[in-house]
Amino acid sequence: MPWLQLIIPTDDSTADQLSDALMEHGAVSVTLQDMQDQPVLEPVPGTTPMWSQTRVVGLFDANEDLKAVIKQVEQQLRKDIPDWKGEQLEDKDWVRAWMDSFKPMQFGEKLWVVPSTFKPPQPDAANILLDPGLAFGTGTHPTTSMCLEWLDANPPVGKEIIDFGCGSGILAIGAILLGAKHAEAIDLDPQALIATRDNAEKNHVADKIKTYLPKEFPEQSTPLLLANILASPLIELAPYFAQLTEQKGQIVLSGILAEQAENVLAAYADSFDIQIWKQHEDWICLAGTRK
């Protein structure tokens, strides 16, 4: 069925109120979008991060009177909304359209991420079969792509590895396809563990990947630890990661903005010989060896 899209530019002080009001007055869904390409990272616990300039987008049935909706919302919030606009969306399978925009991607020489709608461009390569999903990690973000490139350049043949903050399981699966013996995949989000197990099944490596919530993980050392999360938790976890990484073992850290690299390096300097391995756009990937 066709839909109407109601778009309202606002700021972080009223975005939540507008979102709630649109849902109360008939929106099927409401999405918040960044208007100025402003990253929102590492919120204070218990807070909801928000862009300073936010676009609130409500999806409505095609028969909805958007002018009437705006009038109701204005009355509820007791403020004028002069800069709204409505758009008609063509009737199409939006999930399929999103999937169709996701193409095979190559990382280094041997590693590919291939969605289910495509045949692997190089059948004999290490092909991660992966579709977009709820859990983070499809290879499109620089933080993930740099980790995949590191794995391709340093195949973990015969190694037991830890993928901390596994998301979709992409790094654990890539490591197995490149020769790793076994992977322990850890994430705070139960949805990520479900996604990792599902993707491991699709790639026929489920017997080589075990998933854990952090509190369930039995502490053990590893010759390779991968962590694609964010700078603050990486700094906080530095002593724990030192315990998990065996002597002369390798560590790869991503999810770090360039201006955060110095602080992360300092947190790991006592236990690791570590340095910047690669930079992609504003993001940094660190790699090092346990002292």
Keywords, separated by commas or semicolons:
291 residues, Rossmann fold, seven-stranded mixed beta sheet, four-stranded antiparallel beta sheet, 31% strand
**CATH superfamily descriptor of the largest domain:** Vaccinia Virus protein VP39
What series of H and E elements makes up the topology? EHEEHEHEEEHEHEHEEHHEHEE
Percent of residues in helices? 25-40%
**CATH top level class name of the largest domain:** Alpha Beta
Number of strands: 14
Radius of gyration: 22 Å
Low-confidence parts, pLDDT < 50 over ≥5 residues?
A: 36-50
The second-level CATH architecture of the largest domain is 3-Layer(aba) Sandwich
What's the domain count? 2
Number of H/I helices: 9
Termini gap? 61 Å
Quickly give the structural class: alpha/beta
Q: What is the mean pLDDT?
A: 86
In the sheet with the most strands, the strands line up as 10-9-8-11-12-14-13
Described by strand count, sense and barrel closure, the largest sheet is:
7 strands, mixed
**Strand fraction:** 25-35%
What assembly state would you assign to the polypeptide chains in this entry? single chain
What is the CATH T-level topology of the largest domain?
A: Rossmann fold
Approximate shape: elongated
